Amino acid sequence: VNYARYLSRAAGTMQESPIRKMGTVTARIPDLISFAPGYPAPDTFPWDDFREITGELLGAREGTTLQYGPTRGFRPLLDAIRAVLRGRGIDAALEDLLITTGSQQGLDLVARVLLDPGDVALVELPAYTGAIAAFRNVQAELRGVRQEPDGIDVDDLDRVITRVRAEGKRARFLYLVSNFQNPTGLLLAGDKRRRLLEAADRHDILLVEDDPYGDLYFPDAAEASDTRPIKADDHEGRVLYLSSFSKTLAPGYRIAWIAAPPELTAKFEVAKQAADICTGALDQRVVWQAIERGVLAAQGPRLRAVYQHKRTVMERALRQHLSDLLTWPDPRGGFFIWVTAPPEIHTDTLLERAIRHQVIFVVGSAFFVDRTGANTLRLSFSAPTPERIEEGVRRLSEALREELDHLHQEVGPVGAGGGTRGTGTPRG
Ligand SMILES: Cc1ncc(COP(=O)(O)O)c(C=O)c1O
Predict the structure, then answer these.
(1) pLDDT, tens digit, 9 for 90 and up, residues 242-256
(2) Which of 18, 42, 407, 428 places its Cα 20 to 30 Å from the Cα of 342?
(3) Separation between Cα atoms, residue 3 and residue 81, nearest integer Å
């Protein structure tokens, strides 16, 4: 049977996640150091609290714990999330909220509810691949907006929207990660948050603000007030806010939420009914209890210290081994260091060589909807131990130097019409 003939148009164009694809590499190569997926460090999971909570929940034999539940979510968890949101300056009503099975489901619901085939969705250059996939799966057209060291370039946003309009199309929304962006780690400046709200109003678009990393700021470089969501100052109902417990408690529970204007949340709820009926009842209760018992609150300072330390270790190793070749912005929170290599480097070929040196990363081009970024890559420091981070950067340095030697043998010496070595001053 030729199954290709049976595929929908949408399925025909679906692409495997470049990050997930790396999972097969990880499984194949012994002693591989992976800087690829943005996984939290498993030793930060509050294992004992989860064991105790789960034991009590199952011990009580309360039927609803293992039953189907309301699509909107488990009411006590929704109330707990309202309190979490108040801590971030967001005053959400119950009817604004929907629990989702990971924020990834939230992005899928946003795509289904807001985008028709051919509609334009605006994303950052570079943007989170999971969002790109969700929007592409409904056959939307994606346009990129440049980023500066302090986040999205609002003037470029104006230009892109004007161009889209001149083509007779309408941009529906701008998707962005305001805090410690995936993949760049960038933090959006406070004044840009205000300007984005004005721009959304002026151009009559929505903002889809995805904020899984806001709590993970590094105390030596940022503070909680720097991460105040755009949603907190949204008085016109322009912002759809997504967040998740994946990075602060554990991604295995798949508990996240959307806070949006109630008319839209009602639509997301109907779309979710067809996707999975409801998010896991036991998982919602475990997370609810983790919030009630102060486990989530205790995670914050602990995670900030752990990831700040790993960031320091990776940056130190990069400076030691690679500062002559690579540049990167200092991350002030989150899981990632975004790296630019010399222009002659294609990180997809570098990756093949890196695999031979038993280290992997995500190629930067995967995050660009305009097919640029060939010499960029994303390093995630969240999951490996500090020792493995140091060793992985050393291996990366070997792979990169070998690749440059190989290229320069092919094209002749630098300065004789060949490539140019690292331009600009490395930061960090
Ligand atoms: C920006 C961003 N949005 C959404 C997600 C998905 O998170 P979740 O585990 O809540 O589905 C991730 C995960 O890496 C992410 O980085």
Answers:
(1) 999 999 999 999 999
(2) 18
(3) 44
